[in-house]
Amino acid sequence: QPELGKPRRNCYPLPGFDFAYGLYIERTDGGVPEAIGHWNTVKPRVTSAQKMPRDFITMTRGALKDGCTTAREFNWYYKTKDIRRKQLAYTFNTSPPKVPADFTYGIKSRHCDPISDVLQHKYQQVWLEQQRALTAAKRAEKKKKEKVRETRTTVLRKQPLPAEEESFWHLPCFEKV
Questions:
Q1: How far is CA 17 from CA 20, 33, 72, 118, in A?
Q2: What value does the mean pLDDT take over residues 101-111?
Q3: How many CB atoms lie within 10 A of CB 7?
Q4: pTM for the complete prediction?
């Protein structure tokens, strides 16, 4: 039932201050101090020779030295002499390269802009000039594309055909005798 003089609540009450959300495991959960102070890293497992993939290049070379020629002999050799790839051991025996004491790794920082150029808005003006030049170039290119193509009619209007000259030659049957 609702409290006297108050409407009925449409939600559940929150748990008390001693309530912990989530799963709590007593043996492993030490909270923030354990997370900061201990580095529980996973140790790399040593792989046995059987888990490494087979080295077919070495086995084929050995089979050829022993005189194997057919596929059956090669299979027999692979079964009898099972050679696995060796595990790569990454060791850093070499010393780091010699570099000068004042050498800086990475990208060099940009030089500082003069404060007078910043106060005079020089970079804004340069940018606006670049934008104006870019729009002018685009307009010129667009005008070139919008050029009207000449048709036969426009060419003939500019350069009319030469007038036909009157010919004085007639057929012999039409000549006056």
A1: 8, 21, 76, 57
A2: 79
A3: 7
A4: 0.26
